[in-house]
Specification:
Layout: E1 8-10, H1 16-23, H2 31-40, H3 44-47, E2 50-56, E3 59-66, E4 69-73, H4 77-88, E5 96-100, H5 101-115, E6 120-130, E7 143-144, H6 150-165, H7 175-188, E8 191-196, E9 199-209, E10 214-220, H8 230-245, E11 250-253, H9 259-268, E12 271-280
Parallel strand pairs: 4-5, 10-11
Antiparallel strand pairs: 1-2, 2-3, 3-4, 5-12, 6-11, 6-12, 7-8, 8-9, 9-10
Protein name: GNAT family N-acetyltransferase
């Protein structure tokens, strides 16, 4: 297939090996797109969008996931600008731009004039990783959740999302879809929690995973139980379980201003390896 202006074209199943090699240059930072590629084989109907590739002399040098989330992959500033130019020809269909800070900033500078005013921009989000045993004792009560936990788990997921994003996932009739997503993670064994009696007091999920890394999201403790060390011991428990059962490296990214969470992750043994940015609409 011929490439378009600036060497950019949509990728498909024949490009899967080249794409996985590209993502594999930084398999932890790129775990989301690696996961999406492996689970969809880059088939557009399964992607729910497109994966764009940028080529130089016939070689894939950068990519861009364009679905509900737009995610640059191994993109230089020049690559991000080329993807932005293509994006301007189709208008905004994404709800979030997220990924390595320099690429996101370059992409946003290229589309800002045509994509409208974002709801929020978070330019500085430390990307953290841990590849060994946690530095603190794991909470032994952290476990995988089951569908029998949904009465406690689902409201906690809604509360976390609303607190983190600033809008409820149920807004505009999204409750059924969001409940299905939570249930999917439970069924996959990617949802973890700690209970005091019947009450959930800590939770976290694996958002995506590859053979080399897993990305954690949705870390949450009820407001009245914060400051007790539940997040630190709970995350140590999640790290232990995920490294044993899912992937050898655990990653996440956190807002710069979330000092309590950053302290908890540091105590567990997470270290910053990159900086992300997010533009939300």
């Amino acid at each position: 297939m011929l490439t378009t202006r600036h060497g950019v074209r949509p990728l498909g199943p024949p490009d899967l090996d080249a794409f996985l090699a590209l993502a594999g240059r930084d398999p932890v930072v790129n775990v989301f797109v690696d996961y999406r590629a492996r689970t969809t084989t880059l088939e557009p109907r399964w992607l729910g969008g497109e994966m764009w590739g940028r080529f130089e002399d016939g070689e894939l040098v950068a990519a861009c996931h364009v679905g509900a989330n737009l995610v640059p992959v191994q993109a230089s500033v020049e690559d991000a600008r080329a993807f932005a130019e293509r994006a301007l020809t189709r208008g905004r269909t994404v709800s979030t731009i997220v990924g390595p800070q320099d690429a996101v900033q370059a992409f946003w500078n290229g589309v800002a004039r045509g994509w409208g005013t974002p709801r929020e921009i978070r330019w500085n989000q430390p990307h953290l990783e841990i590849s060994g045993a946690p530095a603190v004792a794991p909470d032994p009560l952290v476990r995988r959740t089951t569908r029998q936990d949904m009465d406690e788990l689902y409201p906690a997921c809604v509360a976390m999302y609303t607190e983190e994003v600033g809008i409820s996932p149920e807004y505009g009739g999204g409750a059924e879809l969001y409940r299905a997503r939570v249930t999917q993670l439970v069924n996959r064994g990617w949802s973890y929690a700690r209970f005091d009696g019947d009450r959930l007091v800590f939770k976290a999920e694996v958002a995506c995973a590859s053979p080399r890394a897993a990305q954690v999201q949705g870390v949450w403790v009820p407001p009245d139980r914060r400051g007790e060390g539940l997040a630190t011991a709970g995350m140590a428990g999640v790290v232990e379980l995920v490294r044993r059962e899912v992937a050898p490296v655990v990653s996440l990214y956190v807002n710069e201003w979330n000092a309590p969470a950053r302290r908890a992750y540091e105590r567990v043994g997470f270290r910053q390896t990159a900086t992300f940015a997010t533009v939300m609409f």
